Structures are given as C-alpha cells and as structure tokens.
Amino acid sequence: MTPRPVVQPDDLDRVDLASPVLHAENNLDEVWRHLRANDPVHWHRPVDGRPGFWVITRHADVHKVYQDKGHFTTAGGNALATLLTGGDSASGTMLAVTDGPRHQQIRNVMTRGLNPRTLEAVRHSLQQTVDRLLKNALDMGECDAAHDVAANVPLGAICDLLEIPESDRHHLLGLTSHAWSTDHADEPPQEAWVAKSEILLYFSRLAKERRGAEYDDMVTLLANCRIKGEPLSATELMANCYGLMIGGDETGRHAITGTILALTENPDQWRALKNGDVDIKTATEEALRWTVPSLHGGRTATGDVELGGKLIKAGDVASVWIYSANRDEEVFDEPDRFLLGRTPNNHFTFAYGMHYCLGHYLGRMEVHAVLDGLRRLVGNVEQIGEEKWIYSSILHGMHSMPVRMTA
C-alpha cells in the first residue's frame, strides 16, 4: 500500500498541527521524534487568526501536565479544535471539560453505572457481537474492516450500556462518526455541528422518557440521580450522555481498525497472536499504545508554570500529544515497533490523572474481544486496498480499510 508522505522537521514552521488535513494526509513521526529530542515544549505560532499554543511531546512532560491540577485546567476545552476557537460550550457540564468538586461529583455518579454486574453483561454481549461480525467477514471473504467490523463493536457495547433501542443504533453511529471527524477534506463544518446537536437532542428526549424509571442503565441513572439533593441540570444530562456516546464509540472503533491494520503489516505479530505466544491482555495494551485513537489532549494554564525549560503563561493553551508520548524512546524499547508482548506498557491512550478516561474498561474489553476472536476464528487477514484516514486533529483512525479474511 502507498505510505503517506513523511513531514520533515524542516517543515515544522510551515505546518499547522491543529489541521485535520495535516494529520489525515501525512506521516508526522519524524516531526514528533525531532520535537522530543530537541524542543519537547514547543511554541506553535498563531495560524489563520487563531492563537498560538504549546506542543508538549515527551512522555515525562505529558505526565506532568496531566497530574498538575494546580496549573492546568480542562475548563474551556480539552482539545485544540475548541480551545483555539472560543472554548467548549459544554465546559462546566460535561465530565471531560469540568474540573474541581463538580467533576468528582459527576464522576462518582457515572462510576456507579460501570459496576461489575453491568460490565460483565456488556462483556458477554460484546464477545458474541465480535464473533458474529468476524464470521460474517469470513463469509464475505473481502470486507471493509473499518465499516463491517470495527464500527459495530463499540457501537454495540456503548449502546448496551446506555440501553439504546436497536432501531436507533445505526442512526447514532452515523452521527457520532461526523461529530468530531470527517471522511473528506472538504466536508463542511456545519455537518459536525448538526451531528452534535442531533445527538444532544436525542439524549434529551431519551432522558425525559426515563425519568422516574428504575435504574438499570447509564441514561436512567443520570436522569434520576441526585447530587446534594439536586438532579443534574438538563444541560449536564445531555452533555454527559453525549460524552459517553462519542468517547465510547469513536475510541474503540479506531483502536480496532488500527489493530487490524497493524496485524496485516506485522506478520510476525499475527503469528504470535495465532500461536498463543502472547497473552491477550498484554496484547490489548500494545494495541492501545500503538493505535492512539486520540492524538492529543488540551489544557489551559491557570497560572505561570515552567515546563521543559519554557515558561507557560497563565491563559496559554497547552496541547499534550499522546501519539508522541506513546512512542517516547526514553520510556519504550523499540517504540516504533508493534510488539504484542510488550511489557511494561505505560501508555497514555486513556490519558492520566483526574481525567483518566472513564470508559477505559469498555475500550479494553472491545480490543480484547477482537484480538480473542481473531485468534480463535480467523486463519489469515490481509489488506487488499488503500486505507482511508479520517480528517481530524483530535481522533486518529480510518474510515475505510479493505481486507480479505480467511478461516
């Protein structure tokens, strides 16, 4: 297959790291390697009227930002797409862009919906779904791993958790796939806003239907919970259902597609998986490190702070690049190799600290189920057409990857 063009460090002052087109159409590995070695806390110039921002690429520095609640906040946004364009409208209501006591209060409620009984039920259903999808792919012979397999795995898991009716699920899949990324460079931004609005309205209606009902799913839990005697506001309810849907679907989908691509590109690792030479749990962590479904996280400095010998001033936007940190030579041996037996594996795929991804249970279960299904059911998988990458500066994955699967 045709590799994407490699952006060289000499081009760094001419590229826009907040551009979805840059990430979809290019390979930035050399840029990340150069920044880690020479300018790990890098000031990115303003572009097209947007403010400049800090680009943080080393694992150790990313760790510092994630754990430093005193100098960095997600209030206002947690990604460049919103931080550079006026802030996130869900700030202070959605868990991912809320800090302080309210963050912990909402997180405590949502954690109750991820209890062992619920997760075990989701896990059982998830493995059945994966097995069915892989058997269908084998029957077809040739399929699109992104569309025919990966898209349907996390969709089922998150919709089971939220108890979304079967009749609504594929409509929601179409909306989530457009909310934070596009399939084409020239897709109008209005489509993303329409998709986000429709998801929010959908959960507003669903939550109203479930007020007063007995809790057995996350939407009902959120619709009927009380924090200090008060229910969640309508905005908090919609925003956090939206956050669960987007995070639970997009992350797993791109991790699964990326894992299948990596296995086609590394036949030695495919053999290790098939032969039982690697533990599935260990392999899952390497798949998550390698695929990096979220390219970066964003923060705003709340006070002046020194990092990597640079002064980040109060109000500055700081981006921590998970993709780069997950390939840091100081932390990972042979970081540019996909090694299913890698251990330890201290990746940042689910972030770190108070904003450690609440859905990490689901993400791990989804990738684990796919690896297990591939080991048991699929004799060989090969890529038979060009993969097509999504256009996003936040998410990292493919919307199409033609493969041939044989038993």
Automatic annotation (TrEMBL):
UniProt keyword Oxidoreductase present: yes
Gene3D superfamilies on file: Cytochrome P450
Pfam families in alphabetical order: p450
Signal peptide from the UniProt entry: none
GO molecular function: cholest-4-en-3-one 26-monooxygenase activity; heme binding; iron ion binding; steroid hydroxylase activity
Highest taxon in the source lineage: Bacteria
Keywords: Heme, Iron, Metal-binding, Monooxygenase, Oxidoreductase
Any single biological process term in GO: cholesterol catabolic process
InterPro entries associated with the record: Cyt_P450, Cyt_P450_B, Cyt_P450_sf
Annotated family: Belongs to the cytochrome P450 family.
PANTHER family named among the record's database cross-references: BIOTIN BIOSYNTHESIS CYTOCHROME P450 (PTHR46696:SF4), P450, PUTATIVE (EUROFUNG)-RELATED (PTHR46696)
Full protein name: Cytochrome P450
Upper taxonomic lineage: Bacteria, Bacillati, Actinomycetota, Actinomycetes, Catenulisporales
